[in-house]
Amino acid sequence: MTKVAIILGTRPEIIKMSPIIRACEEKSVDYFILHTGQHYSYEMDRAFFNDMELPEPKYNLDVGSGTHAVQTAKILTGIEDILIKEKPDVVLVQGDTNTVMAGALAASKLHIKVGHVEAGLRSYDRTMPEEINRIIADHISDYLYAPTETSRQNLLKEGIPDEKIFVTGNTVVDAVYQNLEISEKHVNVLSDLGITSKNYFLVTMHRAENVDVKEHLSSVLEALRFISEKYSLPVIFPMHPRTVKMVKEFGLSLEGITVLKPLGYLEFLQLEKHARVILTDSGGLQEEGCILGTPCVTLRDNTERPETVDVGANVLAGTDLIHICQGIACKMTDSKHTWLNPYGDGNTGKQIVDLLWK
Ligand code: UD1
Ligand code: UDP
Predict the structure, then answer these.
(1) Does 153 lie in the same domain as 18?
(2) 47/87 same-domain check
(3) What CATH number does the domain containing 247 carry?
(4) Ligand 2 lined by 300 (C-beta under 6 Å)
(5) What's the CA gap between 59 and 37, in Å, rounded?
(6) Per the confidence metrics, is the pTM higher than 0.90?
(7) Which pLDDT belongs to residue 1?
(8) N or C: which end of the chain has fewer CB within 10 A?
(9) What's the rounded Cα separation, in Å, for the pair 329 and 339?
(10) Ligand 1 in contact with 66 (CB < 6 A)?
(11) CA-closest residue to ligand 2 atom 17
(12) Residue percentage of the chain with pLDDT more than 70
């Protein structure tokens, strides 16, 4: 019987691996979870295991934060020891973080099969650390689970053989469907915050190229204050720890913005569903807005999720104040929120686990 190692390390990986973990549980697969500890604060890590009632990781490397080289090196060496001991037949990684690149590399050097969940995404911007991680992970993987035909084509263009690629949809759809219902039964974040459906903007931002550059971060904060006043709507901003750190370091004002700690998934899904518009540089939020029928303005000049733009759910604005205001104006007046979700029917986790046996 195939033994599977599920490697994860950050908030989005916990969320997007959760449907695969559930499918492994349902099918009594011989698997274990290896957490690198890239994310470690309660609200970036444990909160998600609790919210989604996920089984405990068998290992946690506790690598914590560091430069790219330090973090990647710690993950590589930590994972290698465990893989040598556990001898899994296949390692699954998800997405584009340092955890993913290091996990895939450690496994492939040990001649263990690698499955990359969410393969083939490309922003074609190699200044993004995530783009480098994606390219490396895709090129050393044996099974590439591409969410859409577009991502499959990206892989084919790079010479990856078709027989390694499986178009499966994205596990984010499963995660949204599996958790939204639970969320609506158990939490009521809107009334807790004193806001009402479709009467607020929801913001997240954490990309290095945005928050580590003072002009970009301050320009977005100014734009948020501007749109809040112009439309008389509150701006709700659950803030990633990296962004908190940089706002403090640059001495920027958060006046006029409702800043919260990062929220648990059940609360956050509700906020996304009921927001008037989402403003974000997150990959996961672009997808979830599209799935939930909430329009999105992306605070980046490019996206590796072009499907969201093509169906009319998302518009790219970057960090320039005028462009953000134009993006918001376009999404505030756009009443057709009836696009088709391009990321599948919510059975991606099961499909991927089934494919491992074929
Ligand atoms: C990482 C990923 C990014 C992903 C994001 C998801 C890489 C290169 N980046 O970015 O692709 O979109 O996770 O959120 O892998 N920090 C805490 N507590 C935590 C984690 C981080 O306080 O639990 C703070 C630390 O100050 C740390 C900073 O956030 O230095 C950045 O953390 P890091 O994991 O390096 O990158 P992210 O920005 O989280
Ligand atoms: N998320 C959350 N609470 C928050 C902010 C985000 O649960 O306060 C979830 C969100 O629903 C999505 C994921 O975290 O599923 C996105 O993670 P992030 O933006 O950190 O990473 P990215 O998707 O950009 O890699």
Answers:
(1) yes
(2) yes
(3) 3.40.50.2000
(4) no
(5) 10
(6) yes
(7) 66
(8) C
(9) 19
(10) no
(11) 12
(12) 99
